Amino acid sequence: MSEQLPLQFEFQSNQNFNTFYLGDNIETITHLKNRFINKEQLIYLWGKKGTGKTHLIQASSQQANKQNKSCFCFSFKPQLPTTSILDGLEQLDLICFDNIENIAGHAEWEQAFFNFFNCHRDHNKHLLLSAHCPPKFLSIQLPDLKTRMNWGLTLKLNVLTDEQQLNALIFKANDLGFKLPLNVGQFLIAHYARDLPSIWQLLDKIEHATLAEKRKITIPFLKQIMRNQ
To answer: 13-48, pLDDT tens digit by residue?
Structure first.
């Protein structure tokens, strides 16, 4: 692979391990935090949409940076970039790829990632991948690449229960700097959103409204905020 320096990326400072609501995922988070100590070359993280994979990808990158490790983080979208973004990455201590399932079925990308995987592993570096399904269910067409996806430690993110989802909502509000009463949280989930990504977006709007109006959040105020959206 070439010596080209990889693209830069921006940390999402609010997506760190301290701001992630654990739920039933304590063991998974522990493995992610200790990946260098445990010398896991490959960790494959999977879970349904909204379970927090992207958050943990960012958190892992930030932790590596604080430990003076070189790292790179990228989230694949259906519209794939050129494979040249892989150039030079084999030199870095930690590479994090979110939504790796999006390269499945794209022959050029599968071959390029296979080559990168081997080179990165030969350099004894660390790789963190995330996807919406276990590695054996990826629609990867290149057999050797699919085999390699199973070489490391596979971790599952569990979906939050209804009670945990409410607790996560209150936890996130506290992190944003405002108190969310239990009845308001219950009303928010029941009437406006059930999936966590949508709820996080609503919390950002609520935070801005409470700061602008200098008011505590109540159900009538929540209804007013939603009417103004």
So the answer is: 578 999 999 999 999 999 999 998 888 999 999 999
Q: Which residues pair with 131 in a beta bridge?
A: 46
Mapping DSSP to helix (H, G, I), strand (E, B) and coil, where does residue 129 land?
strand
Fold of 162-227: Helicase, Ruva Protein; domain 3 (1.10.8)
Residues near 102 by Cβ (< 8 Å), separated by ≥ 6?
76, 77, 78, 80
- Angle between helices 182-191 and 196-213 in degrees, nearest 10: 130
Distance CA 82, CA 184 (A): 46
Per DSSP, helices labelled H in 106-218 are 107-122, 143-148, 162-176, 182-191, 196-213
Region 17-156: CATH code? 3.40.50.300
Residue 49 DSSP code? T
Answer for the pair 130, 57: CB distance below 8 angstroms, yes or no. yes
Interaxial angle between packed helices 182-191 and 219-227, expressed in degrees from 0 to 180 and rounded to the nearest 10:
40
